[in-house]
Amino acid sequence: MIKNIIPKRIFNLIAPTYHGAWAYLGAILYGFPSHNLKVIGVTGTKGKSSIVYLAGKILEEAGHKKVATLGSMGFRIGEREWPNVLKMTMPGRFEIHKYMAQAKKAGCEFFIMEVTSEGIKQNRHLGINFDCALFSGLHKEHIESHGSFENYYRAKQELFKVTSNIHILNADDPHVGLFGDFMAKRKITYGVERGDIRAEKLELRADGASFECYGTRFNTHLTGKFNVSNCLGALAIAAMYNVILCAKFIKP
Questions:
Q1: Domain boundaries, the chain
Q2: pLDDT by residue (tens digit) across 81-114?
Q3: SS3 helix, strand, coil % of the chain, rounded to 5?
Q4: Cα distances (angstroms) measured from residue 94 to each of 53, 120, 208
Q5: Are the C-beta atoms of 108 and 77 separated by less than 8 Å?
Q6: What distance in Å separates the CA atoms of residue 231 and residue 58, rounded to the nearest whole number?
Q7: Domain 2-191 in CATH 3.40.50.300
Q8: How far is residue 104's CA from residue 36's CA, in Å, rounded to a whole number?
């Protein structure tokens, strides 16, 4: 591999071009499979894995075709699941497009994936046609490879620059304003305290939580406000795809 023969300092300079070339090659090789899927990208310091998982389950429960998910927790295409042993949330080279091609072949309608700042920095997202982008929140963590907090959030902003249909934002996050000015056909916010989709009559318990949203009572074994926020993010995704929210989607 080229990165094994080039000094690390030099490779780091050319890494975005290297990974970007592989990404586009993958898209070409597999026939741009993302154009036949509704690709939902979830970015943020925390909450990505939970939102991807929950949104996938909700969309399937709502009667949509098979759903594919990709992230740090593993990969899923319909009922087939396997662990992520690649040690990266956004796989490089042809991997993402390969999974998308498999999802398309399996008859999936949605492909929900975690999108990391490191993956965007390395252009691993190139060649993907994103239909929806979700921002879960921003914390001053994991910024070592970016050099500054500004570089960190600017990397995440790229997802919203390349997604023009649906934007979903966590209104509770103090940095939400950094992501609100990008153009999209439809936008929605969510949050425990504020947002278009928010938790009403919230009850936090040692074994989970319950809340109301648009007149429906939801229960979950996930604990803490943070996980309630993740549930709301997943419900917001479903709402933007015309799913009527009902209690069966967040199971006790």
A1: 2-191
A2: 999 887 788 887 788 999 999 999 999 999 999 9
A3: 40, 25, 35
A4: 23, 15, 39
A5: yes
A6: 10
A7: no
A8: 7
